[in-house]
Amino acid sequence: MSAFVFDTRTAITHFPGIGRYVAGLLPALSTQLAQDERLVLLCTSTAQAAQFDALRASNAAVSVHYVQADAFSPAQQWQVRRLVGSLAAPNEALVYHSPYYLMPYWLGVPKVLTVHDLIPIVLPETVSLRARLFFRLTHRLALRSADRIIAVSEATRSDLINVLGVEEARITVIPHSVESRFHPQPQTEIERVRTTHDLPAQFVLYLGINKPHKNLVGLIQAYAMLPENAPLLVIAGAWDTRYPEARELATRLALTDRVRFLGPVNDADLPGLYSTATVFVFPSRYEGFGFPVLEAMACGTPVACSNVSSLPEVGGDAVSYFDPLLPSTIAAQLIRLLESDSLRQKSATEGVARSLQFTWEQAAAATIALYRRLHM
C-alpha cells in the first residue's frame, strides 16, 4: 500500500504558475492510482481545499488534510512533519511531493521536489541581493533534502546541473501541459471577451506579470519601431507596482494611445482572450517552462517569442523566435506576422498541433512512476 502526499499549499493566486501546475496535474494523477494507492492533499484551509472538491467527489482515493502553517512559516518544519508522520496506515509507504522549494526539509519519508526555474540565480540583476541570498539558501536546503527532483524543462534541468551542481541522476524532466479549456474558442466567446474588455478586432497580446525578467521594457521599445497603424499592443496580467518602467517608457515614447495596460484578467476569460488576439508576443529573458506560450498555441493564436531558455522546447517549429535582448528582432518578427495572413494561419495551425504533444496524462504517468520507484 502507498500514500502519495502532495503539498498544495502554494497553489494560490500568489503563485499562478504553481496553481496551473497543480490544477492540471492532480486530476490526471488521481486517475492513474492503483487499487492500493491513495492521494493525500495538504491544504491550509477549507477555502483552499474547495478547489479540489470535484476531484475528491470523483475519486474516493483522494483525501485532504490540513496544516495551519503556510509555506512561508517556519512552523511548517514541525507541523508538516508531525502530520505526515500520522498519515501512514499500517504497512503503508509514504512519498511526499512539494511543487515549491519552501517546504519541510526533514520529514523522514522520501521526498520529491518540482523545480520550475532559477530566475534569481540565472538573472541576479532582476532581484535584490537579499532575495538572491534567500533563494539560493532555501533552494540548496530543498535540493539537498529531496530524494528526486522534477525539472519542468530540459533548460531547468541544465541549470540545476550547471548552476547548482545537482547530480544528474536525481533529476527527471517532466514538462507541463495546459488544461483542456485552452483551445480555439467559438466566435460567441470571442465576441464576449472583446466586449467585456473593450478590445478592438485586431491587437497584439502579451499576458503575464511585469517583473524585470519578462522584458516588457524591451517589448515597448520594439513596439515603438512598428508603423503607427500597427494593431494596439495589449499588456495583460498582474501588475507589480515595484516595476513601473514599462508604463513610464510608453509615456515617454508617446505610446499611451497605442499601448493598453489591461491589468489582471479573469481566469475564465483567458481562452477567449488568447483566441481573439491577432498575435501573441512573449519577450521573456528566461522561463522555466512558459505556460502562456503553450496556452496561446493551444488556442490557435500565432506566437512570437524569445529564443532563450525553455521557450524553444515549448514552441518547437510552430513559433517565430527573436532575441529578447534586441528589440529590433522583436519588431521584425511582429511585422513579419502582422503583414502575412498566410504566415499567421500556418503558425496557428502548427501551434495547435504542437500543443497537443504536451498532456497532463503523460506528466502524471511520469510523476507517479517516480513516486513508485522511491519506495520499491
Main attributes of the structure:
Rossmann fold; six-stranded parallel beta sheet; globular
Task: Itemize the secondary structure elements and their pairings.
Blueprint: E1 2-7, H1 16-30, E2 37-43, H2 46-49, H3 53-58, E3 62-66, H4 76-87, E4 93-98, E5 111-115, H5 119-122, H6 129-145, E6 148-151, H7 154-164, E7 171-173, H8 187-197, E8 203-207, H9 216-223, E9 232-236, H10 245-252, E10 259-263, H11 270-276, E11 279-282, H12 291-298, E12 303-306, H13 311-315, E13 320-322, H14 327-338, H15 341-355, H16 360-374
Parallel strand pairs: 1-2, 1-4, 2-3, 4-5, 5-6, 6-7, 8-9, 8-11, 9-10, 11-12, 12-13
Helix pairs in contact: 1-16, 8-11, 9-10, 9-14, 12-15
CATH class placement of the largest domain: Alpha Beta
> How many domains in all?
2
Measured by DSSP, the beta-strand proportion falls in: 15-25%
In CATH terms, what is the fold-level topology of the largest domain?
Rossmann fold
Q: What class do helices, strands and sheet pairing give?
A: alpha/beta
Give the name of the CATH superfamily of the largest domain. Answer: Glycogen Phosphorylase B
The CATH architecture of the largest domain is 3-Layer(aba) Sandwich
How are the strands ordered across the major sheet?
3-2-1-4-5-6-7
Look at the structure and give the mean pLDDT: 96
Quickly count the helices. 16
Flag low-confidence runs.
none
Distance between the termini: 11 Å
Total beta-strand segments = 13
SSE string: EHEHHEHEEHHEHEHEHEHEHEHEHEHHH
Q: Bin the helical content.
A: 40-55%
Largest sheet: 7 strands, parallel
* Principal-axes shape call: globular
Rg of Cα set: 21 Å
